[in-house]
Amino acid sequence: MSEATAEVSYLEHGHSLKSWLLTTDHKRIAILYFLSITLFFFVGGAAAALIRIDLLTPEADLMSNEGYNRAFTLHGVIMVWFFLIPSIPNTFGNFLVPLMIGARDLAFPRLNLLSWYIYMVGGLFTIAVLVLGGVDTGWTFYTPLSSMFANGNVILAATAIFVVGFSSILTGLNFIVTVHRLRCPGMTWGRLPLFVWSIYATSLILVLATPVLSITLVLIAAERLFGIGVFNPALGGDPLLYQHLFWFYSHPAVYIMILPALGVISELVATAARKPVFGYRFVAGSSIAIAILGFLVWGHHMFVAGQSMYASAVFSFLSLAVAVPSGIKVYNWTATLYKGHIALDPPFLFAMSFIGLFVVGGMTGLILAMLAVDVHVHDTYFVVAHFHYIMVGGTVSAYFGALHYWWPKMMGRMLPLVWGRLSAIFIFLGFNLTFFPQFILGYLGMPRRYHVYPAEFQTLHVLSSAGASVLGLAYLLPFTYLLYSLRHGGKAPPNPWGATGLEWTVPSPPPQHNFHELPTVDGPPYQYPVEVDGEREAAHG
Amino acid sequence: MNRLLTFWAGQASHHAGQVDTLFLGLAVLAVLLSAPVFILITWFAVKYRRGKPADRTHAVNRNVWLEVSWAAIPFLATVAFYLWSTGLFIDLYQPPAEALAINAVGKQWMWKFQHPGGQAEINELHVPAGQAVVVTLASQDVIHSLFVPALRLKQDVVPGRYTRLWFRADAAGSYALVCAQFCGTDHAVMGGQLVVQTPADYARWLAAAGTDGSLAAQGAVLFRQMGCSGCHGAASTVHAPPLEGLYGRPVPLANGQVVTADDQYLRDSILLPQAQVAAGYPAIMPTYQNVLGEEDVLKLVAYIKSLANAQPGGGHE
Amino acid sequence: MADTAQARQRETTLMGMYLFLGSEIMLFGGLFAVALALRLMHPQEIVAASKHLHYGIGAANTVVLLTSSLAVALAVAAAEAGKIKGTVVGLQAGAGLGIGFLALKAVEYVSEYHERLLPALAPPEAFANPAAHLFMDLYLIATSLHAVHVTIGVGLLAGLALRVHHRSLALPRQATGVEVVGLYWHLVDVIWIFLYPVLYLVR
Ligand code: HEA
Ligand code: HEA
Ligand code: CUA
Ligand SMILES: [Cu+2]
């Protein structure tokens, strides 16, 4: 009896809608997240498309000032809270953490499902904001603009983010407890896959930083409804207090967005090179270091906001310190490749493009942390380019890398490698064409959040919009061939890439309860070589 | 190379040149620190392609000293730049004493400037070349940010407080002046020109621009109109502090603190009189929050500042 | 074997609760940061405004909450020992005292309303100065957010008491449920212990 059911994969186990909507299986919940996040990616992407079309000419031809302001606000809000923050943790984290540590599920499976429903309620609020005419404050909701002057649906938007915050908190809590309590025998902390380390560090931030955002949003709503005055100088409040609260959350939040990606890349690099990650301890520890240091640098968003000169000097210095653990990761990955057996499969191409773009984004972050330079480039396209390099070039590339790498495991189907390689290359090229010109624009003085601009800037804007269309199409590509592979792809063996890690020891797709018998681990992670070489060749034909 | 960066923004001050140099230095540093990564990854990907014969013996999995060094060396390199950049930044907080004082008010969606002589202009700022200028910034509504790319300078304008921006433009010409902080519907068109003129041209411009008397004189008029003199005037019977000689002096407060009577203090005394009550006086001064705009307040402040060297009871020393 | 599985389950649940409480602390932490900032900006006015609060009622409420915490702690101990009666009584006492807290709080709000101290209901002129108004706003937000937590806690305690009474929660096997709610209740108590001095005793 248990023999037979164990062989049924989680995908086959019930086909009714109910079996999906009421599932507590972490793998199915991962799929639910995957679908909903993809939807929001396209909504956010459509807003980006509108922005880039509008910026083709210096005049306002596609959208009015109000329309444009709403477009970039929704673009930012949706991309940050409804796509990027949940992207890797809630899909791949959900799917993989129990598999990687040898557990049957997360510690609180029902809470996990609840998180998804909360996420969807938040999402519905966002759609409501969109339908009711949008919101025009920027994703940063600076006061007093948001609290007293803006005329969009600020309260509804704040509610949406407030609600989705609960989903984040519960997800983070679930991961932390799972990693602490459900590791299989022999899976010591020193043997955890690096992806699990990074999800663990991310979860710490999710649990501790998100509530600060929640209370800040409550204050904004109260300010707007009742005029309580905490952020209103005329009533004795202080608008900068808002910025401190917001960035106290939002700077750590950028590490929520990058840490899971860093974890993914560690896995991809090790598998591609068939070597243990160089300096496992440093790479694992740097995730925790980033999570902790990340709480100390929020003031670098406020260098020209009127905070004290001394505060700025301190925040600038700490921002340099936070770059050190990121640097360790990058250099250690490079060292991992040395004398490896490198396969240029799609996941690795995405990893390479991640490393390149993350380094550019990170180094420009360092430049932004330099006070005298930031005074000039703050709130210009230089900043826009910086964060897209990290968030889109970095995290989204890692997300696609993870999608290609674990797709056979999740769906049980192989994907067309050639198309995978092509889309990695197109995304890389389209990305650079879109966002590199923005560094130059920014340094020349093009402010962000402008729908009209001086004619001198047009050439660079046109380049950027051209790049965005390449990028948009390149993003569509994987969705077509991945969908295609569901029907026509070859059946995936348990370990198509010849990787280490417990998730590769179970069938693809995994059975409902993951493991027949809980595994036991008796050695360090990433013990290459793995004896499955023939399989990959055979499977890919 | 510097030329390349200046085709639109222009370089209107010595500071701008220094920022460009710093930026180029940082760009070089960024290339130096990231080039090894780019080159090695590509090289390894080619050299150690799977299935390709290569010497793979003695591959190591860790080397603590190596790791510490590639954490420490880049960090130390950036610390050198940190010192350089922070030095430049601190200069921005130290305007020279003789700087020409200009007031600016940001409001949705325009900039209003006023010169010490009382000349007012909108979305355009005329300044003399070669002279230090310090702009005191106030906001009438939301946060704005005064940004002059050619000066490589910007400063947020925050409601409820004065911020400052100082510069010394060297090269005569017109430069873009914009709002960099998102401030609502027409944020993108809230801007104009910074016109840097030779001192002679500037003097001519000042003379041509109409004015109802100097800023301080306009403040003096308001001081009477708004009834301030009824309490603070020499003849007043109300127990209110004299404002002559107040500016720049330490003021003991009723709560025991001592603050310096700077621009911010004067502003708060007018708009939020209950916040900091001068010691020994009743807290009877009404607020002018809903009566006076930021521009009027700036005029009153200019007037009170002009009394800095006067004796209580009228008359200059 | 069954015992260790149960013990593991218990620790897992407790750990989840501790993390949740950590995030609750950060939630109120944001409010405390705002209170600190206001205090630094307007020391005098805040002290003056704080003097208008009924620190007697606040103190009484502190005692009520502390006692209820004690009752809940006893209930947890009884639950672990499998004593159904003791558990039910402890939980009921905790919930009852929680209701008492809410009642006192309501009395306080009403009297503040009559003294025209309650923001949103009183005109701005009723306050000595904007900072005092601001302080009362913060007072209202913080205490009502706390009251929401108390209400949830009362609901949880009462629900548990009912389930234990009807044996739908088997003791001591499922004592963890009681323990977890107990933790939550203690946190609600602890938050009040911080709110009380920050709001009432800054004088
Ligand atoms: C995933 C998101 C993400 C990440 C990971 C980062 C990472 C970093 N960010 Fe970025 N940032 C954003 C998203 C992100 N940022 C967003 C969204 C904004 C704008 C918000 C808004 O206003 O709307 C922003 C804005 C922003 C500013 C404010 C700009 C302004 O508004 O004026 C600053 C200033 O210091 C900054 C700095 C940094 C630094 C120092 C890092 C570091 O963590 C980077 C570390 C990485 C590296 C340095 C590269 C790899 C390292 C090496 C190759 C080794 C060699 C280097 C050394 C050790 C020195 N960021
Ligand atoms: C977090 C993730 C994230 C992601 C993934 C992106 C993705 C993109 N972003 Fe976004 N961006 C932000 C986060 C993100 N952004 C934030 C936080 C801001 C600041 C907002 C603010 O100022 O408040 C911002 C602001 C921002 C601006 C500045 C606006 C301004 O200041 O005036 C621009 C301008 O070029 C831009 C462009 C793009 C582009 C071209 C993409 C592309 O990568 C998107 C590519 C994807 C697609 C295009 C979707 C797939 C294709 C289709 C759906 C085709 C069909 C479309 C149509 C038929 C219309 N973004
Ligand atoms: Cu004013 Cu933007
Ligand atoms: Cu930051």
TrEMBL record, chain A:
Keywords: Cell membrane, Copper, Electron transport, Heme, Iron, Membrane, Metal-binding, Respiratory chain, Translocase, Transmembrane, Transmembrane helix, Transport. It is found in: Cell membrane; Membrane. Residues 20-522 form the Cytochrome oxidase subunit I profile domain. The chain crosses the membrane at residues 30-53, 73-101, 113-135, 155-182, 194-221, 241-265, 277-298, 310-328, 348-373, 385-406, 418-440, 460-484. The keyword Ribonucleoprotein does not apply. Its main location: membrane. Pfam families: COX1 (PF00115). One of its GO terms (molecular function) is cytochrome-c oxidase activity. It comes from the Bacteria. The keyword Metal-binding applies. It catalyses: 4 Fe(II)-[cytochrome c] + O2 + 8 H(+)(in) = 4 Fe(III)-[cytochrome c] + 2 H2O + 4 H(+)(out). Pathway: Energy metabolism; oxidative phosphorylation. Coiled coil: none annotated. GO terms for cellular component: plasma membrane. It is a multi-pass membrane protein. GO terms for biological process: electron transport coupled proton transport; oxidative phosphorylation; respiratory electron transport chain. Its EC number is 7.1.1.9. Cytochrome c oxidase is the component of the respiratory chain that catalyzes the reduction of oxygen to water. Subunits 1-3 form the functional core of the enzyme complex. CO I is the catalytic subunit of the enzyme. Electrons originating in cytochrome c are transferred via the copper A center of subunit 2 and heme A of subunit 1 to the bimetallic center formed by heme A3 and copper B. Belongs to the heme-copper respiratory oxidase family. This is Cytochrome c oxidase subunit 1. It comes from Nitrospirillum amazonense.
Automatic annotation (TrEMBL), chain B:
GO terms for cellular component: membrane. SUPFAM superfamilies: Cupredoxins (SSF49503), Cytochrome c (SSF46626), Cytochrome c oxidase subunit II-like, transmembrane region (SSF81464). It holds the Pfam family Cytochrom_C. Its EC number is 7.1.1.9. This is cytochrome-c oxidase. It is an enzyme of class 7 (translocase). Residues 214-308 form the Cytochrome c domain. It is found in: Membrane. Belongs to the cytochrome c oxidase subunit 2 family. The keyword 4Fe-4S does not apply. It comes from Nitrospirillum amazonense.
Automatic annotation (TrEMBL), chain C:
It is found in: Cell membrane; Membrane. InterPro entries: Cyt_c/ubiquinol_Oxase_su3, Cyt_c_oxidase-like_su3, Cyt_c_oxidase_su3-like_sf, Cyt_c_oxidase_su3_a-hlx. The keyword Transmembrane applies. It holds the Pfam family COX3. Keywords: Membrane, Transmembrane, Transmembrane helix. GO terms for biological process: aerobic electron transport chain. It is a multi-pass membrane protein. One of its GO terms (molecular function) is cytochrome-c oxidase activity. Its main location: membrane. The chain crosses the membrane at residues 18-41, 53-76, 88-107, 138-162, 183-202. Belongs to the cytochrome c oxidase subunit 3 family. PANTHER family: CYTOCHROME C OXIDASE SUBUNIT III (PTHR11403), NITRIC OXIDE REDUCTASE SUBUNIT E (PTHR11403:SF6). This is Cytochrome c oxidase subunit 3.
